[in-house]
Amino acid sequence: MVLLRAAPSRGTLRWWFPVAGTLGSLSPLYVALKLFGVTLFTVGDRDRVRVTLADWCLLAIVTGVRVWGVLDGIVRGHWKGFVDSEVEVIEYCLGFALIVMILVVLVVPFYVMLHVKRVEDLLGDLKAFDEELQRLGYPRNHRYYHFITTIVVTSCLVVIGLVILSTLVSRDTKWLLETWLFLAIVNTSGAGYTLYHTALNMAILAIHSRIQLMNRCVQERLERDDGGDEADARTNLVVQLAKLYDKLCDASSAISVVFGVPHAVFFINIFFMHVVACYAILRVLLGVASAREVANAWIYLGWSGYFNSFLFQTVVFDAAMKQQTNKFCTAVHRSLNAVHNLPVVEQLLQLAEQVASDAPKITYFLFELHPSVLVQACGELATYLVILIQFDMQ
């Protein structure tokens, strides 16, 4: 994947906007999150993160509108028109998943505000890492990552817009006008979930790309004992690499805190939604669905498939991050075989022990993210589909 490749040299993309600093490379995502009311905090001077009075006022307004819209949609039954299914179990299950998605997006701004200190720690660790590695001669291409972030955020919003449009295009115009508030809440919540999950994926990529730079540094400065660096310089380099690695571990811990619990709920809800959507598709394939159900089934699959694509990206990015960590561990051990100076060897042994005992990882509340999650989810999906089909036949 393009996003997992090493960033080009700093002189590339001269035609793109000038970007300064770590936060500048993430500014498109930060603006989009604040625009859709997902995260409402302000980054001030020296990258200090704080919640201002204006942020609290905006949060109160956004929360009030969302609560009003959700209650209106539930009391008047607007969610049934949005789901629009002839099968009662599909209608109520998807309606429940829809309301849960809105409620979680409603809670996310408060959750992030409770952990605003961890957000500041995360940005501070990434900034300190970039500054230190730049002094070692490996600057981070912030302009390139600003370009990538802009493309990713724009693509996510365009795709979710098309999914929403495909859902509403077959609805009656009168119904659309009567339920505009509830539809606005659903649409902004879908976009908010998309951006919040995109922020998690970009945070994992931020760790991944920095480990790539560390691997490059070890390969060029330590694995080849060509006499280019003095022993003291190499010893200091290994000490600096140990500190940088520790910062990445701290950054991954902050990511787990800021994103863990909401995404655990999101994953369960999306899995539940995907089971119901696949059940609707199976009814179509078995020839027991009406023409209206056939049209709606593909819309359900579009929604669940789009949200599941973010889970798939998260698992892939996390696996790539762990692969880079393993490469870093291998590079350190290779350096042990290439370096013969005793002080340097001792520092490399300490670094190797540090890498073996701790690694950047993403955890979701009570469990760690692992590629086997996809296999387990597929097995559970097949099980529940068999149960639903048997129930439908009876």
Describe the overall structure.
This protein is mainly alpha-helical and 394 residues long. The chain has 13 helices and four strands. It has helices at residues 21-25, 27-35, 53-75, 78-83, 88-114, 116-135, 142-168, 173-178, 180-221, 231-285, 291-338, 342-357, 372-393, and strands at residues 42-43, 49-50, 363-364, 367-368. The strands form two sheets. The protein has a two-stranded antiparallel sheet with strand order 1-2. Helix 10 packs antiparallel against helix 11. It is elongated, with a radius of gyration of 24 Å. The chain crosses the membrane at residues 15-41, 53-69, 89-114, 144-168, 180-207, 264-286, 298-317. One of its GO terms (biological process) is signal transduction. It is a multi-pass membrane protein.
Tags for this model:
single chain, mainly alpha, two-stranded antiparallel ribbon, two-stranded antiparallel sheet, 4 strands
Q: Secondary-structure map with pairings?
A:
Blueprint: H1 21-25, H2 27-35, E1 42-43, E2 49-50, H3 53-75, H4 78-83, H5 88-114, H6 116-135, H7 142-168, H8 173-178, H9 180-221, H10 231-285, H11 291-338, H12 342-357, E3 363-364, E4 367-368, H13 372-393
Antiparallel strand pairs: 1-2, 3-4
Helix pairs in contact: 2-7, 3-5, 3-9, 5-9, 5-10, 6-9, 6-10, 7-9, 7-11, 9-10, 9-11, 10-11, 10-12, 10-13, 11-12
